[in-house]
Design goal:
The chain has 183 residues and is of the alpha+beta class. 34% of the residues lie in helices and 34% in strands. It has an 8-stranded mixed β-sheet, with helices on both faces. Strand 3 and strand 4 form a beta hairpin.
C-alpha cells in the first residue's frame, strides 16, 4: 500500500508488528515521551500502539513509518500521519526520535519525506501538528520545515494531573511548494 521513502540520509518503511520492541524502546523513554501523548512500560502495553498503527492503515486515516540511517538496520525514530480526513484533505503529523540521535536534523528530514508523501500521494492540502506547551524542540522542527503557528489552546488537556496547553501548527500544500523553492 505504501512505498518506502528515502532521503539523503534516511530510509523510511511502514511500521510492522515486529517493530514492537523498537516502539517500546522509544515510547518507554521519558525523554521521548515527556511531551508525547503515550508512554509504555511493557511489550504488552505497547501492543495498543501497534494496534493503533494497524487501524490507521485499515481505516485509511493514517500511516506511520519507522526510519533508520541509510544502509543500516537499526531503527532510530518514527513519523507519520493520523486523523486523515480525505473529505477535507487534511491530516495530522507526528514524530519521535531516540535521544542519542537528537540534534542531527533527522526529524526534519524524515518529516519532510512524510510531508511530501502526504501532499503528493495522499492528496492532502493541509497537514496539522499539535504540540504540547513547552515542547520547544518540536516547535523549532515544525518552523524549520515551513509550518506556521496558528495559536495555542490554553489548558486544553490534563496530563499527569496538570493542565497543559496545546499549540497548533499547520502547513498548506501551497506554502510547502513555496518553502521548497526557497530551501
Amino acid at each position: 500500500m505504501s512505498p518506502n521513502l528515502t532521503t539523503e540520509r534516511l530510509e523510511l518503511r511502514l511500521i510492522r508488528s515486529s517493530d514492537d520492541a523498537f516502539i517500546l524502546q522509544g515510547l518507554s523513554d521519558e525523554r521521548v515521551t515527556k511531551y508525547y501523548a503515550v508512554h509504555y512500560h511493557t511489550l504488552e502495553e505497547v501492543q495498543e500502539q501497534m494496534k493503533f498503527y494497524q487501524e490507521l492503515i485499515e481505516s485509511q486515516t493514517g500511516i506511520w513509518w519507522t526510519f533508520s540511517l541509510k544502509g543500516e538496520s537499526g531503527l532510530i525514530g518514527a513519523c507519520g500521519f493520523s486523523s486523515i480526513e480525505p473529505e477535507h484533505r487534511k491530516g495530522e503529523i507526528g514524530f519521535w526520535l531516540l535521544p542519542e540521535y537528537w540534534g542531527k536534523g533527522y526529524i526534519p528530514e524524515a518529516a519532510g519525506a512524510a510531508i511530501k508523501y502526504g501532499f503528493e500521494n495522499l492528496n492532502l492540502n493541509r497537514i496539522e501538528a499539535i504540540v504540547e506547551g513547552g515542547n520547544e524542540q518540536s516547535e523549532k522542527v515544525l518552523q524549520k520545515i515551513g509550518f506556521a503557528c496558528e495559536g495555542s489552546l490554553r489548558e486544553r488537556e490534563i496530563k499527569n494531573g496538570q493542565f497543559i496547553d496545546l499549540v497548533y501548527y499547520s502547513i498548506l500544500r501551497s506554502t510547502w511548494t513555496q518553502h521548497l523553492h526557497q530551501a
